[in-house]
Amino acid sequence: MDTGVKAQQQEDRNLPSDIDLLALINKSAVISAIVCFAYGCTEFFTQPSYINGLLTYALATIFLVAHILFRYQKYEALKLAISLLVPVWITFNNICVGGDFGQSACFLCVSTVTYVLYQGQKTKQMVLVGLVLALFTLSTLYVKTHGPLFDIIVQPFDELVVVYVSVLWIYSIFGQYDRVKQKLIYDLEQKNQTLMATQEELERFTNIASHDLKSPLRNISSFLSLIERDIKRGNTDNLLGNLEFAKKGAQQMHHLVQGILEISSVNQNAFVTKDQFSLSQLLEDAVNNLRLEIGEKNAVVQYGELPDYHCNNVEMTLLFQNLVQNGIKYNKSPQPAITVTAEQTDGQLKLTFTDNGIGIEPQFHSYVFGHFKRLHSSQEYMGTGLGLSLCKKIVQKHNGEIQLNSALGKGSQFVVLLPTNPE
């Protein structure tokens, strides 16, 4: 991947939290600009001091520029304006008219703000904070050695203005940290709840899986024992029949193991990469994977042009494959037919899988999406009861939902609703 693209992606990942902080900085800049303009006016009218008044207006202008940069989303320029222009102004003010306490408070405030603005950018952070401290040191040493360029100007409310404005800026910083802390606590609580739910689901899954795996193993063992007995007796009449039953047990075992691996992979986020994919191509891949079953059942899968979608291609192919396979398997029609359509509406992508199968009674609509939930025996319909639960997992991982519309003997319609702007 191009370095510039990587840098942009890194900036995009950091941008939301930066914007929250810079929004607070912008509010502080607006208030500071108003205070500085008002204070500059008092310097002209209460005690004529044109130098100090002009310096105060200059600081107000810097804060106004910061506000304009924020309005036009020039975030990097805004950060530099606060981290460079403000300490340069303080240095110039210090050299011109002195003011030990006020300038010290301002430098301390600016260094704190600069440190926070460049969290995660250690090199810039250290350079800019070091520059602020160097400006403070050099200007202070100059004033102590040679005195200010103009006479020291003492205003009656100078210390009050400096302290309150500095507190305003520091409050913005710690206010943002408090918001971040609360969000982290909330996210941790949510993840803890998710972890507990996942643990409970894993325990249920393990218990059910162990139970369902025992059944085909028991059948295989039983029929192999019968085959062994018949071979020892020289009786070959039932060999093929018993061998076929053992073979079906092995097939059922294979399907169970495969289903468990797929469910486990989805649960463990084995497929985490998402990108823009053609859903038509993914559906075609799923149909090709089922080509043998489609041919054996003389089935027909119809679909038109599907849109591109930001998803995980492996999971989405598994979703399509299981829904199409479900329509073929639970179908007594001479020619099973599955139709797939797509529609975008109300901020959602609606994918509909319609079949002419045996249908499902309404009271079992939610039941069939559970792990190992089957409405028919494996002798009647070979399967594991994991296909639809896997579909539900995949859809939920894409922040969507899956619905079932069906009635016994009237086919089934599975509706997959996905957000058109996935995260």
Outline the structure in words.
It is a single chain. The protein has 423 residues and is of the alpha+beta class. The chain is built from eleven helices and seven strands. It has two domains: 3-156, no CATH class; 274-423, 2-Layer Sandwich (Heat Shock Protein 90). Strand 4 and strand 5 form a beta hairpin. The radius of gyration is 35 Å and the shape is elongated. The model is unreliable at 1-16 and 374-384 (pLDDT under 50).
What secondary-structure arrangement, pairings included, does this model have?
Blueprint (H helix, E strand, L loop, with lengths): L2 H43 L4 H22 L3 H23 L2 H18 L4 H25 L11 H76 L5 H29 L7 E4 H11 L1 H7 L2 E4 L4 E4 L1 H17 L7 E9 L2 E8 L31 H11 L3 E6 L5 E8 L4
Parallel strand pairs: 2-4
Antiparallel strand pairs: 1-3, 4-5, 5-7, 6-7
Helix pairs in contact: 1-2, 1-6, 2-3, 3-4, 3-5, 4-5, 4-6, 6-7, 7-11, 8-10, 10-11
> Strand-and-helix sequence, N→C?
HHHHHHHEHHEEHEEHEE
Count up the domains: 2
Alpha carbon gap, first and last residue = 21 Å
The helix content, as a percent range, equals 55-70%
Biggest sheet features: 5 strands, mixed
Q: Shape, please? A: elongated
The chain-level mean pLDDT equals 75
The chain-level structural class is: alpha+beta
What proportion of the residues form beta strands (DSSP E)?
Answer: 5-15%
Rg computed from alpha carbons, rounded to a whole number of angstroms: 35 Å
Number of helices: 11
Q: Identify low-pLDDT runs.
A: 1-16, 374-384
The tally of strands reads: 7
What topology, given as strand order, has the largest sheet? 2-4-5-7-6
